[in-house]
Design brief:
Helix content is 11%, strand content 31%. It has one helix at residues 75-83, and strands spanning 4-5, 13-14, 19-20, 23-26, 32-39, 45-49, 66-68. It has a 5-stranded antiparallel sheet with strand order 1-7-4-5-6, with no helix packed on it. A two-stranded antiparallel sheet has the order 2-3.
Length: 84
């Protein structure tokens, strides 16, 4: 998997909820975390830490420079999870 520059592409935003799935992000200081992107009613895009308590509050994180989707779990774990 490759890091994706936020100036080139953003995670897919669900048009009903106006937010994306959680993704891995890195900021200009090299801090790595997980976050989601949200499109505000006015069209602005903001990034939020994945466990941000209220999506109407100001964004939690510094704008990331890059993002990437989470990898799928190992096949052994994935197969076990599907059986539950």
């Amino acid at each position: 998997m490759q890091w994706i520059d936020v100036n080139e592409s953003l995670p897919l935003i669900n048009e009903k909820t106006r937010d994306s799935e959680n993704v891995l992000v890195v900021d200009e200081d090299g801090k790595v975390g997980n976050a989601f992107v949200m499109r505000r009613c006015n069209g602005d895009i903001e990034w939020y830490h994945e466990d941000h308590p209220c999506r109407s509050d100001p964004p939690w994180i510094d704008p990331p420079t890059h993002w990437m989707p989470f990898p799928k779990p190992p096949k052994e774990v994935y197969a076990t999870a599907e059986m539950d």
